[in-house]
Structures are given as C-alpha cells and as structure tokens.
Amino acid sequence: MALTLYHAPQSRAIIAQWMLEELGVPYEMKLLNLKKNEHKQPDYLAVNPLGKVPAIVHDGVAVTEAAAICTYLADAFPDKNLAIPVGDRRRGPYLKWLFFGPSCLEPAVIDRVFKRPPVNPMSAGWGDLDQMLDLVAKAVAPGPYLFGNQFTAADIVIGSQLQWGTMIKAIPERADLGVYIKTLMARPALQRVYAKDAELVAAQGSAG
After folding, report:
1. What value does the CA radius of gyration of the chain take, rounded to a whole number of Å?
2. What is the pLDDT of residues 97-122, one digit of tens each?
C-alpha cells in the first residue's frame, strides 16, 4: 500500500492529517510551502489542478477536497470503524454530515468572518451561522459524537470546522457545543496532529 499526503501546516490539510492519524495507517507526508508557491508548481498541479491542499494519492489514485478524502479513507479502511457502512440505515445521515461541513457550515462561518450580508438560503444553499450551529448542536446533544459512541469521519469534518471557527472567534462559545468540541480536542490523534503542525511551522519558519 502506498499512501501519500500532500500537506501544508496551518491549512485545511490538517483535516486529512487528523483522519490519517485516527486510522493509524502508515503514510508519507510531502510538505508544500505555500509562501514559496510550491503548491502552484507543475508537479503538484498534476495531482490537484487547483493547487490546493490537502490531497492524497492512494495506490495511484489521487483524491482532493478534505471531506472527500475523509470519506474515501474511511471506506478504504473499513476495519478502522470510522465509516457508517453501506447498508446501515445511518449511512444517509452520515453522508449528510460529511457534505454539510464544506457546503453549509464552512460557508456560513466564512460569511461571519468577512461580515458578508445574510445570504438567501433559497439561492445560496445554506443559512446563517446560528442556524447551522443549531443543527449541529441538536445532532450532538445525545453525545458524545454525531453517531453516539461511534466516532466517525463525519466528526472529523464537522469538528474541524467548529474548531477553526472557534479559534478565529467566528463561532461564539456555546454550552451546547462546548462539550462536543472539548471531547474532539482531547482525542490523542488530534493532539499528535497539533504537535506535528507546530513542529512543521517552526521548521518552515527557520528555513525561510
């Protein structure tokens, strides 16, 4: 098995890295320095023509977009129990959350960050941030995860958005989400990701 992660610290690539750490499978990390435009060079554009991170190549198959990578990897390693399998009645809601993260929650967070006027959900496909957060809070209320005791790739996708939005102060502190976020932050795999990311930031900074 050959599995490569194209990564840049302090970017969305952390989502894919978290997924890989949760899986516990071996992978090679290829670092891209965004400040040096390494993600815009021909070699990487052959992997992802948009020049974005993350991307993975698994046994010769390139996959881009963080949520798609998480979905793909969860299905590729079913023994790790990070996916709701086909045939399970929860598969539909599981896919809903995987798509909800980048298509509804993230745009609503970005609206708040850039103070954009409220969008028309009939045309834009998402509502205001408070409405999006209410939906997540209702789903995680039984706890500890979106699907009860089973931690899945959907928690990585949604949790990454919540953590990012909270860190940049776009998402206000909410008691109905606080326990869920703290539970995710305490996962050893995510703690390893943050530690490695700090090391990578320092290394790229010293390299100029």
Report:
1. 17
2. 999 999 999 999 999 999 888 777 67
* Residue carrying the six token digits 């928690």: 155
Q: Quote the CA–CA distance of 140 and 148 in Å, as a whole number.
A: 8
Query: Residue 207's pLDDT is what?
Result: 60
- Superfamily designation of domain 3-81+191-207: Glutaredoxin (3.40.30.10)
**What percent of the chain has a predicted confidence (pLDDT) above 70?**
97
SS3 16: helix
State the chain's mean pLDDT as an integer. 94
Q: Phi and psi for 87 in degrees, rounded to 5?
A: 100, -20
Residues 148 and 94: beta-carbon distance below 8 Å = no
Query: Boundaries of CATH 1.20.1050.10 in the chain?
Result: 91-188
- The tens digit of pLDDT for each residue in 58-87 reads 999 999 999 999 999 999 999 999 999 999
Architecture in CATH for domain 91-188: Up-down Bundle (1.20)
Instruction: Extract long-range pairs of 95-99: CB within 8 Å, 24+ residues apart.
Output: 95/71, 97/139, 97/146, 97/154, 97/157, 97/158, 98/67, 98/70, 98/71, 98/153, 98/154, 98/157, 99/67
Cα four-point dihedral sign 111, 133, 185, 75: negative
> In Å, what is the CA distance from 111 to each residue of 10, 15, 105, 190?
20, 21, 10, 27
